[in-house]
Write a structure and sequence with these properties.
eight-stranded mixed β-sheet, 321 residues, 12% strand, Rossmann fold, alpha/beta, two-stranded parallel ribbon, single chain, 41% helix, 10 strands
């Protein structure tokens, strides 16, 4: 069995801790969903290390406010904003077409969680569409730019929520089973890990390494679809704990930044991390946060998902023409 990757960092480390002493000058990075939550702190840390960072966001006004703040706090003027709607293939393809330089770091950070039952124009369940298929389309479309970087990294921000569900290849979009928001979220997060496994297998020879991660428990806009009373009760309960399991956004971004920028991860790919260290395979997610299920790392399921995703995108693009 391959030895687990460990680092000097842990759950208390921040994104800025991870890039201390790291120089990304001359590198180009994209962070999706960088107008809120851990996306902001991921982008800030990469900019702090000297990278030119593009905030790929739906709300460009919010993105510009974040970009201005990051420029002020880091002194890095190379922070830009570009529109990207991961539920819209046309938007994704437009973003790809407008990208005209090598890409050293792609952080697939954007996401939605436990949404009401919603489908895209192509009939895709929204969480699977945004969390997996949109990022799949973006990463594969940017593959030439990643190759041109001569040593790129792709980071897939998944979740311990993957423990809620494996991929149901026979009913991806709940056509035959009742819709369950938690199952849909879990399936989409399992897909993000499987993407990292197969992308790394396919692209490592091109100098592109791909890993997935769980950021930790962080209160962000991701919980906006939760029942308000339930959310308030959980926040109160966590706040009362002497040693809370919750992280700040700066701590939550640390594992993303580790995979995106740290020299400690050179040559490492196809793995899943939490708290800045590779997670062990577990039968059940520990404390609801830690470990990775074996099905999320299964190479055969990863290949099947890649083929399924490719076919779905080809059909969608054909229907768009």
């Amino acid at each position: 069995m391959t030895e687990l990757v460990t680092t000097p960092f842990d759950r208390n480390s921040t994104a800025l801790d991870v890039v201390d002493g790291v120089d990304l000058t001359g590198q180009h990075a994209i962070v999706t969903g960088a107008s809120s939550g851990i996306g902001i702190e991921t982008a800030r840390a990469l900019a702090h290390a000297g990278a030119s960072v593009t905030l790929a966001v739906r709300d460009t006004d919010a993105g510009q406010r974040v970009a201005d703040d990051i420029k002020t706090t880091t002194g890095n003027s190379g922070v830009t904003v570009a529109e990207l709607d991961l539920a819209d293939i046309t938007s994704i393809d437009s973003f790809i077409e407008n990208w005209n330089r090598p890409l050293h770091v792609l952080v697939n950070n954007a996401g939605v969680m436990t949404t009401p039952e919603t489908y895209t124009d192509h009939g895709w369940e929204l969480q699977f569409a945004v969390n997996h298929l949109g990022h799949f389309a973006l990463a594969t479309g940017l593959h030439p730019a990643l190759v041109a970087a001569n040593g790129a990294r792709v980071v897939s921000v998944a979740s311990s929520g993957h423990g809620n569900a494996d991929i149901d290849f026979d009913d991806l979009f709940f056509d035959r089973r009742p819709y369950d928001a938690g199952i849909a979220y879990g399936q989409s997060k399992t897909a993000q890990i499987l993407f990292a496994v197969e992308a790394d297998r396919r692209w490592a020879a091109d100098g592109i390494r791909v890993n997935a991660l769980m950021p930790g428990g962080i209160w962000t806009n991701l919980q906006r679809h939760w029942d308000p009373d339930t959310l308030a009760g959980m926040k109160e309960q966590m706040a009362a704990q002497e040693n809370s399991i919750m992280k700040t956004p700066e701590q939550g971004a640390a594992t993303s930044v580790l995979l995106a920028a740290s020299p400690l991860l050179l040559g490492i790919g196809g793995r899943y991390f939490d708290d800045c260290n590779q997670a062990p395979v577990v039968d059940d997610i520990i404390d609801g946060l830690h470990g990775v299920r074996a099905y999320a790392l299964d190479p055969q399921r990863a290949r099947q998902l890649w083929e399924t995703s490719t076919n779905l995108l080809e059909t969608a693009r054909t229907n768009n023409t």
